[in-house]
């Protein structure tokens, strides 16, 4: 098998019709489960959506992004303390995981296995795309996937064989985010050196012009990820965590 070059990895949003079986997905998930996990508790569950009718129902909860319907499978990686807590209860042990710290522990587990799965899939020539809207509509996903208390959707990934290879997206230089021994804060010149290149990328210049802004950062703060939206989404996600039993 050809070694996958992670320096060239990119998100894949257009997929071919080449089939990926449920058996192969399960095999990759089994391998991915060797990833690090808090106290070997494996605080996650994964819901695989392959049926077209189920994708149709899931799609609006991800703002109808086309990858949901065109991928071979949609994988929803969920924080899950339900299973472990039941094991405790059935074993005459009293679980104490209905709190925010436990949610964070499980969120780490869930994120780690999701990324491990992605690396395995990409090493086999498949393509993946993280869908960033899972926590936006967590309540609807919970209802659709029939998730019990202490279970919350966190990461969604679409999976398929690439129908095209898009251009690499830019990344800041490693010196912009690596600190040795202690954190070295940034001054204005540092920030200009780290992010300045973004301002002259043609696609970004178009975003700036289309949104009638002076700088690219303003597209993020004023258009794409506005404070009021972040506050609203935060409030809703906290409500979901309470509903699912993580603030009792």
Per-chain topology:
Blueprint: H1 22-32, E1 44-49, H2 52-58, H3 67-70, E2 73-80, H4 82-90, H5 100-123, E3 127-131, H6 138-145, E4 151-160, H7 188-195, H8 202-210, H9 216-224, H10 227-243
Antiparallel strand pairs: 1-2, 2-4, 3-4
Helix pairs in contact: 1-5
Summarize this structure as a short list of keywords or feature phrases:
globular, 248 residues, four-stranded antiparallel sheet, alpha+beta, 12% strand
**How many DSSP-defined strands?**
4
Number of separate helices: 10
Strand percentage, roughly?
5-15%
Helix and strand run: HEHHEHHEHEHHHH
Silhouette: globular
Question: Largest sheet, if any?
Answer: 4 strands, antiparallel
- Rounded to the nearest angstrom, the distance between the terminal CA atoms is 49 Å
Q: For the residues shown, what is the average pLDDT?
A: 96
pLDDT < 50 stretches: none
